[in-house]
Amino acid sequence: MTNELNRHAAVVGLGSMGGAMAATLHRAGWSVSGFDPSSEARSAAAANGIAVVEDVAELAGTPYVVLSLPSAAIVRATVPHLLTKPGTVAIVDTTTSEPATSAEMAGLAQQHRAHFVDSPVSGGNAGAATGMLSAFLGGSEDSIEAARPVLDALTGGQYTHIGPIGSGNVVKLLNNILCATNLAAVGEALDIAAAYGIDLGIAAQAISGASGGSKVSSAMFPNWILSGTFDSGFALGLMARDVSLALDVAAQHGAAPQVLSGTNQAWQKALAELGPKADFVQMPSTVTTATDALSPTAINAAKESASATR
To answer: pLDDT tier at 246 (50, 70, 90 boundaries)?
Structure first.
């Protein structure tokens, strides 16, 4: 348990996820400081009561640190700065990172009498903003226990200790590549429905109540694609990266997945066509072959046409 003397957390990376997590900790009564290289992100965090700093090294020695960073390379470059002063109890890395990097950072933290947990999360901005994320944890039992106060604040206890350091990274990558596979597969299935002249909303709803249903068909398609919003908040470039990283882990450990390799090819194609900044739910428009009914332009045109005929 924390006490009033160490109920202080730093969040490094104040973007969509990190900024929301910082605000959640602040609302829960924590004293929260933070850093992001973006002045815009720092200003937004400051408006939510976060004490922002101009240099990540200023956060060294903070009892609890949450990382929400774009890549393993940035994690590797950041953690040494946070350990230049004593006082850090636990570093919780929510980055979708690489297991080897997590193992390296855990070893470095141990040298400084601190704990490091790989804790990639699922639940998006909404989960981060409400303290209801789910997390995949990798680390020792002692490290998980040391990080528990901040983990509880961010997830409401919705986390699973997968195994040793790096295990959380692996399972999060597997979760993402399965989501990416399903997004492409549902896109292809609804392309067939569109070619046959079936209403896509009705098709998705029917499938969602049957054995082929999933969160992709029941939530992602109606909420973010068929609605015409395409605003999940997760970039296509990040999903393409995660798909590729999952296959890197497979290759490093002697696995040779066939279906998931096809997923990677489809996502690299989407990356080339749409660019890294597109929302990841735009990807299905790149796997359609019979119709362009899943493109943002076609969906919004269909919505406008339906509104005009009412």
So the answer is: very high
CA distance 22 to 18: 6
- Radius of gyration of the CA atoms of the chain, in A: 21
Q: Which residues of 20-32 are buried (b: 16+ CB within 10 A; e: fewer)?
A: bbbbbbbeeebbb
How confident is the model at residue 1, as a pLDDT? 44
Look-up: residue for tokens 């992100």? 41
Helix runs in the chain, H state only: 16-27, 39-47, 72-82, 99-111, 124-130, 141-155, 167-196, 200-208, 215, 236-252, 259-274, 296-308
User: Residue 203: which of 215, 221, 220, 185 has the closest Cα?
Assistant: 221
The architecture of the domain spanning 170-308 is Orthogonal Bundle (1.10)
For residue 290, give the amino acid letter: A
Domain with CATH 1.10.1040.10 in the chain: 170-308
CATH hierarchy code of domain 8-164: 3.40.50.720
